[in-house]
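Exercise 7.
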Amino acid sequence: MAAALAALEARLTDAGWDLLLGSGGSCEVGTPLAGARALVRRGVGALVFLGVDLPSELREVRGIQRLPSVSVDRTDRTGFTASAGLDLCRAGKLIANYLGQLADTLRADKALDGSPLEIMHISHEPIAEGILRWLALRNAPTVAICGSDATALAVMHACACHGVDVPGRLSVVGFGDSPLARCVSPTLTSVRIPARGAGIAAAEYLLARFADRVPDLSELPVKLAIRGSTGPPPGPH
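Solution. The predicted structure, written as tokens, is:
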């Protein structure tokens, strides 16, 4: 989401506002809630959330109620924080629906009972070791859903090194639809998101709030670019 952050910062800077970054890491001192509290103590004029799940405890942060708050890539189901129009949950649904269709196709072709679809989510585990360990499981995954195109390409490289057929044995899905997705063989199926548009939309929301105007936020399109790295899952071994 670097493009979203860059667009957000550029638009706010053009309007005369400064962007102060706070960490939302996994350690206790770097949680989104701790980061929000720290920013509120520093007297910021608004809060923007990017790449983090919105903690329900945000309402309890003293002073936060008076601050305009917007999330670049999440939807706050409570309505406390506005959304810039990009909801990554929609991306997950696109992937799930597509993979489900592939599994249904295999069942129809081979008269299989039950779904042969098993999914693994790739994040920080060493790729090569993870691939071999997961594929050795009794219910071995047939799909790797990756948090970025870079991780997906690393998965595909590990598969190539260890003789794992993509997509015959393992389908791979990336995230971000970077130019590299089209430069590998097989080409990479990836989620295409309007990251820059989301960053600009978040900035425009804040600028409207600062000027006491009604913000104009609309849903941003998310698309699954289907390419050669995904296919029907293999049947039972």
